[in-house]
Amino acid sequence: MRGVPILAALGLCLGAGVVRAGVYNTAEAESPLSDRFDVFRSTLIALKQIGIAPEDAGPAAPEQPFHKRYTLVGELCSRGTPPNLTVEQRLQVSAYLIRLRKYREAVAVLALAERPGFPERDNFLVFSNLATAQFLAGQAGDRDLSRRAGENLSEALYQWKPAWKDLSKDQRKWIEAIGWNESQFVRYRKAEESLRKLFRLRARESRPPANPTELLGKEIEALFDDGGKPPRPVRFVGESGKYEAGKLARAEQAKLPPDALPIVQQLLVWLPDDLRLYWLYGELLNARGEFASALEVFTEVNQKLNSFDKPGLDPFTKKSPKRDPRFLKGPFPPPVNRDEDFSRLPLLHKEHLLALRAAKKAAKDAFEREVQTQPANPQSPAVTKPPPPPPSAVKGALPIDFRSLAVGFAFGLLMAFFGYWQLREIRRRLQGRVAPSQG
């Protein structure tokens, strides 16, 4: 009986909506991708802050309305998940738990998908969510779940037919009911293929990162390559063979698919806490000429690494060391300028960050020199107003000679005076003639 009110409460949150790529949730709006770095970063920040206390979120990430829904569902599920959830409801609950970083709880909600005879067995979106939860749990240290993640994602892609026309009638009906069309179906499947490649790359590592200095690995994430045997990953260098700000050699550019940036953005929407993916996003920004935005990404990653003041702190807990009860007693390391501390960056990553910093400084210095060559306002020569145009240069105006006008005006007054005097003289004479006649 306890599960009934919980199920009813969940029903208020798990309404119909749009599917979000990667972590599929039909109860939430799709997280938008954007060609603009500032817009996409805002999307990513909002996803990173799900489940984070407002005092730990920072001023750059105000609480969003949907954050409260995630928190509510997480609290309800902590009291026990009802056993009679539908396939779509299990999909939604698992997505909420993944966003809240409760990976093992999400695996438990979707565990029926791994058992024969359950309806979840035929739903590739359920397998995708299950694989994501297992992968993230593996990143946090559970190697067995990490291995199973690759198997379940392969199962998801096996059921996820390459073409829309290959879907069964029931599959297409369900996909259309949750708001997908053929274009979304193809685009999300391509993102899943890239995710499977990411899983395989990470599975080759002998163990998960033990401390923040290992989070980025030694090389840039080899998600894109030339497709050869063996494959040659993209080297983010210019034509000179060295790392260059805003440039990528043509031979390396040819290894990138046209939609490389949207693919990485889609994976980041799925895995917003993955620093290695975020660094790859910065490399792609630099490759298309946006080195200032790439530098912001690299700087954020370095600052994030430097925020883990104690080796061994689980980076996926998103807890500040000063708030973590394990480190309240200290001793704390002396304060350092985090922007100048690159000790936790691998050598290659440090080289890239410093190259972009130097390019930004050079651009700033060049701009300041250009400004200094311009005359300053206090020393600028006095501006002489041009003389007014001659009267004949004014369109529609007649030439005016003020001297002639004054002479004419004086002559007119004189003529008026003489006219008035003459009139008085005539009038006097007439009066003189009339007076004798009357006498």
Summarize the structure.
With 439 residues, the chain is mainly alpha-helical.
What characteristics describe this protein?
439 residues; 16 helices; disordered N terminus; 53% helix; mainly alpha; single chain
Can you characterise this structure?
This protein is an all-alpha fold and 439 residues long. The chain is 53% helix and 0% strand. The radius of gyration is 39 Å and the shape is elongated.
Note poorly predicted spans.
1-12, 14-21, 310-335, 393-398
N-to-C order of helices and strands:
HHHHHHHHHHHHHHHH
Shape: elongated
Q: Report how far the terminal alpha carbons are from each other.
A: 144 Å
Content of β-strand:
under 5%
User: How many helical stretches?
Assistant: 16
Percent helix, as a range, is 40-55%
Radius of gyration: 39 Å
Mean pLDDT: 77
The total count of strands amounts to 0
Write the layout of secondary structure elements.
Layout: H1 3-13, H2 37-48, H3 54-57, H4 65-77, H5 87-99, H6 103-110, H7 124-139, H8 143-159, H9 169-177, H10 182-203, H11 250-253, H12 260-270, H13 275-287, H14 291-306, H15 347-373, H16 402-438
